[in-house]
């Protein structure tokens, strides 16, 4: 058979649209940066997530609210690969199937998570904590054996400024306030240049002033990356949210602006009923 005929009638080419997507590379050109469809998770028969679907756009700051046990933390567990759903689809961009890769690979792909309890190193300074976060990043593993270069120092300084800790640069993390430790941990996550940051209850235990600064920080971080914030404090959510998703019994009850969701009779019912 002639070679041209074989090409014509043989295997269908993998790329036919003209948009070549490299395997494993984030592609958000035709839709959200993160989506879950029809995801269910059960624990001993109890459905913590129940046919949940959710779409997060590149660069957006999304707030998730919902009563205790609604499934907010479980949702983050699913996105980061800690918990595997029984059914459903979880994609990072249009090409990375998060159910096919493990927890470290998901983090490496650009999805990071801030837990409630800060895990900074008390004996190290603010700068050193960030330096460590940089070295922990596999893409720059060789820096383990070399001194920081100027570019890396600049990057650390820039992050310290972003998180508002310039004045504490050389202070040990152990003497920082609770709020400052939380910001430092956000800074450590930023060192890895995540595309999506998941933040679960960031303001618990903070003073009023720290809460305000945290709101400013999260607002300043959107755009460059997507941020999903779970928080119970409605005043705080109102201060940062453009779009709020309300979870209830493992599903999305409604989505909209803070005013829309707060005036939704179903949301009022869920909160009063809870
Ligand atoms: N590992 C687990 N084993 C058994 N049940 C679990 C597990 N993780 C979560 N659950 C249950 O799943 C439901 C959803 O929990 P989840 O922690 O996701 O809720 P949440 O919305 O984060 O609540 P909160 O606002 O209290 O943090 C709860 O009823 C919880 O008890
Ligand atoms: Mg939770």
List the helices and strands and how they pair.
Elements: H1 3-9, E1 34-43, E2 46-56, E3 61-65, H2 72-79, E4 87-92, E5 96-97, H3 103-109, E6 111-114, H4 126-136, H5 150-162, H6 178-190, E7 196-200, H7 208-221, E8 226-230, H8 234-240, E9 243-248, E10 251-256, H9 258-262, H10 265-273
Parallel strand pairs: 3-8, 3-9, 6-7, 7-8
Antiparallel strand pairs: 1-2, 1-4, 4-5, 9-10
Walk me through the structure.
It is a single chain. This protein has 274 residues and is of the alpha/beta class. It is built from 10 helices and 10 strands. It has a single domain, classed as P-loop containing nucleotide triphosphate hydrolases (Rossmann fold). Helices cover 34% and strands 22% of the residues. α4 (126-136) crosses α5 (150-162) and α4 (126-136) packs parallel to α6 (178-190). The longest helix is centred in the C-terminal third of the chain and has 14 residues, at 208-221. The protein is globular. Mean pLDDT is 89; it is low at 1-16. The structure holds adenosine-5'-triphosphate and magnesium ion. Magnesium ion is lined by residues 72-73.
How much helix, percentage-wise, in residues? 25-40%
The general outline is: globular
Q: What is the straight-line distance between the termini? A: 71 Å
Q: Which fold name corresponds to the CATH topology? A: Rossmann fold
Total strands: the figure is 10
What's the CATH superfamily, by name? Answer: P-loop containing nucleotide triphosphate hydrolases
Widest sheet: strand ordering:
6-7-8-3-9-10
User: In percent terms, what proportion of residues is strand?
Assistant: 15-25%
Counting DSSP H or I runs of 4 or more residues, the number of helices is: 10
Ligand inventory reads: adenosine-5'-triphosphate, magnesium ion
Which structural class do you get from the secondary structure elements? Answer: alpha/beta
Could you say what the CATH architecture is?
3-Layer(aba) Sandwich
Largest sheet at a glance? 6 strands, mixed
Succession of helices and strands: HEEEHEEHEHHHEHEHEEHH
What do the pLDDT scores average to?
A: 89
